[in-house]
Amino acid sequence: MMHEQDTRTERGAVAVTVAIISVLLAGMAAFTVDLGAQYNARRQVQSAADTSVLAGTQEAEAGIAAVSDVIADTVRDNVERTYTDAEWSSMWSTANCSDPDAYEISGVVDGAPTNCVSFDPAGIVRVRVPEIEVEAVFAGVLGVDGLSVDATAEARLEMPGGVLPFAMLSGGSGGGEMCLKTASGGGAYGPCDGPANGNFGALVSSIYGSVSHGTQDLNCGTVNDGDNIAVNASAGVDHMLLPHRGAGNVDDTCARPYGPNRLETITGNNSPAIMQGLVNGVSVSGDWFDGLLTKTTNTTVDIQNGGSNVNNIDIRPLWEYIPTGKPADVPGGVPAICTRESLDAELASNGPESANDQLVDCLEEYAADPLGLGFGLLFDLDSDGDRVWDIADSPRFGYVPRMQESSFPAGTSGWLTIDGFQVVYIQSLFFGCTGTGCSDIVYPGIDDADNSINVGGGASALDQVSSLVLPAGSLPVELEFESALLDFTNPELVR
Hints:
By secondary structure, the protein is α+β, with helices and mostly antiparallel strands. The protein folds into two domains: 2-156, no CATH class; 162-322 and 379-493, no CATH class. It is built from seven helices and 18 strands. The strands form four sheets. Strands 5, 6, 7, 8, 13, 14, 15 and 17 form an eight-stranded mixed sheet that branches. A five-stranded antiparallel sheet has the order 1-2-3-4-18. A hairpin with a 3-residue loop joins strand 11 and strand 12 (309-314). The longest helix is centred in the first third of the chain and has 56 residues, at 2-57. The N and C termini lie far apart (73 Å).
């Protein structure tokens, strides 16, 4: 009898043990299945966050509310869970959605503020997707009704070249050569026709502070106008600018607004600041900024400034970014005077000045397309085949704001309204300009490329700067900003 009882006891203990193990195994299975579902859901939500922030960033010129709505709508389209409109709006509300790492400017979803979409004034858009519930299949056995997932992503808008602190006025050329900064009246030299006083082409853009531009240590409110121009000429404007689309003026000030659409002109010739920004370099608040045109591995020419400063500036001509073998005067080709072979021949026969003159004619003919041929790409040299276009690495390549106004304020500073952006190539530097001409004009391909040019004139030597205007369609789409800042941009995911 004792043996039989012991057996029954053992059987009971085994049954209890099996039951406990079964529950544990069921729980483990539940968590395995449900955690797998949670992992897949997290991947889906992260993908939705990435897709949404890229989509939203491309709507930046439409304003904060438009960007926020695009982000929320894109996330909704890319998650499996179905929500009502009211539920979805509530999830994004400030009361229900918090992002401890949100940037300083809050987004607006369906007309209501949200911390889950935020903006850095320098051009970064951030999204934190609100917690989305994943229904538990088996975990309910252990009293777990559901699991939640969320995700964050950031995207940044950046131009492949810098935005230079000069203005292209309304009615400016679609191709050819234009004046960036003019000498004063009497000393101006074509293509410039400077006024006797007032504004000479330079713009003041506030310094926000950007690591990528090296301006993070600068205090906007303490940087004087001259240093401001020099830094922006050297490093490019360090924050995103937007075209004005009629929604109101956003002035570029030290308040660091999101997407300023107006820039301030500055009176005075400001030759020292331009000289520093493009050639000599400048020290501001202990930080050094090289002259823009010295940042190169291309062929250079020595510019001596009164014997005290020697700077090697880029001298590579624009035509060298045209590949050989382009068909001439046919649909999809280029004007005959624009072929690399034609320009090289002109250089060999008549020298760099004549080749540059032909290049100006080339740009004008390309922009006009008088025969209606529909020309193809012009400056698409990619010497190593990595689809990183050679011209984008040139310090002479950049963008200038194209303004709605056709003239500068008369005799005083004022605000100009951004209509879009124009691609330019810094062309000629005019030194020591007077009513009888300029002492030196330094341009790409100049014969003195192996020699030093003493421009004299001290810090104020650089009186005038011109650029070549690169017509719409002449560049790969990644480099085009002809109509507006964001028409062709590829935002970079930086989460």
